[in-house]
UniProtKB/TrEMBL annotation:
Protein name (record): diguanylate cyclase
Reaction catalysis annotation: 2 GTP = 3',3'-c-di-GMP + 2 diphosphate
PANTHER family listed in its UniProt record: DIGUANYLATE CYCLASE DGCM-RELATED, REGULATORY COMPONENTS OF SENSORY TRANSDUCTION SYSTEM
UniProt cross-references to NCBIfam families, sorted A to Z: GGDEF
PROSITE patterns referenced in this protein's UniProt entry, alphabetically: GGDEF, RESPONSE_REGULATORY
Catalytic class of the enzyme: transferase
Organism of origin: Thalassolituus hydrocarboniclasticus
A Pfam family that the UniProt record links to this protein: GGDEF
UniProt KW Phosphoprotein keyword: yes
InterPro entries per UniProt: CheY-like_superfamily (IPR011006), Diguanylate_Cyclase (IPR050469), GGDEF_dom (IPR000160), Nucleotide_cyclase (IPR029787), Rev_trsase/Diguanyl_cyclase (IPR043128), Sig_transdc_resp-reg_receiver (IPR001789)
Keyword Phosphoprotein recorded: yes
Length: 316
C-alpha cells in the first residue's frame, strides 16, 4: 500500500475521518500515538479496558490499538468481551505490548487480533500497520453496504432485513420491550405495470420507497424491500399505538405522491395497504411468528378494500 496516498484516495467514497480508539493505561503512550494519528483519524482514548468497552458500545471505532498489560482488565479480556458483545459493527484490533514472546503473539491472534506491535513503538511501523488494516476494514464496509442494499430502490434488502429482525428480536427479548413490524404492499401493482409499463412500475417502486423512507425518523427504524412490491418496516421499541401512527403516516406519504392509477379499484391514485404486528417477545418465541402475523393482517387489509391498515398484538 502506498503510504504517500491519502486515506480518501485509498478509499473512494470515504466521507469522514476513520475512527481510531487507543486503549492504554499509560497516558504517555496515548499521547505519543495521538500525535501520530490525530491528523488523519478521529482519535478517541481510553485508559482502561472497561472504559474502552463502554465507549465501543456507544460509538464503535473503525480500528483499535489495544495495550495488552493493563490493571483490572487486560487486553486479552477486552478482546474476549468485544467478541461476546453484540456490537453493531466489528472492527480490527491491533495489540500493542511490551512483551515479545512468541506465545504472547500467538495468543493475541487466537483472541482475534489482526496484528501485534511491540513496544518501544516505532511511529513509522505503527502508522503503516494501522493504515493497512483500516483501509481493508473500510473497503469491506463499503462492499458490505452494497451487498445489503436493494439495487432498484436503495433501501435495505431482504437479506439485511433478516439480519435486522434477528438483532432487534434478541434485543427486545433482553429488554422486554415491544417490537413492531409493518408489512406494506402496493395496491393493484400488477395493473399498474400492465397499463403503464414495467419501467414506470420501477419508478413507482423507487418513489414509494423514498417517500416512506422519509417518514422514519428514529435511528433504529428501518425500511427494507421485502419482495417485489412489498416492503417491511421494522420499529424497535415501538408499541401498537406508535406502529399504527407510523403506518398511517406511511399510507399518507404515498397518497401525497399523487401518482395516477386509473386502473385501481381503490381510487384514482396509487395506494398501499399495511399489516402490523406487535409483540414483546418471550423467551423461546421466534421472529417468524411476528412476520406471519403481519402478513396475515396485510391480507386482511387487502381483503377489506386496500388503502388501509390492519393490526394485531401478539402475546409474548
Ligand atoms: N415494475 C416492477 N414490477 C414488479 C417488481 N417486482 C414485482 N413486480 C410486480 O408486482 C406485481 C405484483 O402483483 P400482485 O402480487 O398480483 O399484486 P397487486 O397487483 O399489487 O394486487 P394487490 O396486492 O392484491 O393489490 C406483479 O405484476 C409483479 O410483476 C419490480 O421490481 N418492478
Amino acid at each position: 500500500m502506498n503510504s504517500g496516498q491519502s486515506l480518501a484516495e485509498l478509499i473512494p467514497g470515504l466521507t469522514r475521518k476513520p475512527r481510531l480508539m487507543i486503549v492504554d493505561d499509560q497516558t504517555v503512550i496515548i499521547r505519543m500515538l495521538n500525535e501520530i494519528f490525530k491528523n488523519e483519524f478521529e482519535v478517541s482514548m481510553a485508559t482502561s479496558g472497561r472504559q474502552a468497552l463502554d465507549m465501543c458500545a456507544a460509538n464503535p471505532p473503525d480500528i483499535m490499538l489495544l495495550d495488552v498489560t493493563m490493571p483490572d482488565m487486560d487486553g486479552y479480556e477486552v478482546c474476549t468481551a468485544l467478541k461476546a458483545d453484540n456490537l453493531p459493527e466489528k472492527f480490527p484490533v491491533i495489540f500493542v505490548t511490551g512483551r515479545s514472546d512468541v506465545s504472547d503473539e500467538v495468543r493475541a491472534f487466537e483472541m482475534g487480533a489482526v496484528d501485534f506491535i511491540t513496544k518501544p513503538i516505532n511511529p513509522v511501523v505503527v502508522h503503516a500497520r494501522v493504515r493497512t488494516h483500516v483501509v481493508l476494514k473500510l473497503q469491506q464496509d463499503i462492499l458490505r453496504s452494497f451487498a445489503m442494499k436493494d439495487g432498484l430502490t436503495g433501501v435495505t434488502n431482504r437479506r439485511r432485513f433478516d439480519e435486522l429482525m434477528q438483532q432487534h428480536w434478541r434485543q427486545a427479548q433482553r429488554d422486554k420491550s415491544p417490537l413492531s413490524l409493518i408489512l406494506i404492499d402496493i395496491d393493484h401493482f400488477k395493473q399498474y405495470n400492465d397499463h403503464y409499463g414495467h419501467q414506470a412500475g420501477d419508478k413507482v417502486l423507487r418513489d414509494v420507497a423514498n417517500a416512506m423512507r422519509l417518514v422514519l425518523q428514529r435511528p433504529h427504524d428501518s425500511l427494507s424491500r421485502y419482495g417485489g412490491e412489498e416492503f417491511a418496516c421494522l420499529l424497535p421499541g415501538t408499541d401498537e399505538a406508535g406502529a399504527a401512527f407510523m403506518a398511517q403516516r406511511l399510507l399518507e406519504s404515498v397518497r401525497l405522491l399523487a401518482i395516477p392509477h386509473e386502473f385501481s379499484s381503490s381510487g384514482s391514485l396509487l395506494t398501499i395497504s399495511a399489516g402490523i404486528a406487535t409483540v414483546i417477545p418471550a423467551v423461546g418465541q421466534t421472529a417468524s411468528g411476528l412476520i406471519a402475523a403481519a402478513d396475515e393482517q396485510l391480507y386482511c387489509a387487502k381483503h377489506d378494500g386496500r388503502n388501509c391498515v390492519r393490526q394485531v398484538v401478539l402475546s409474548g
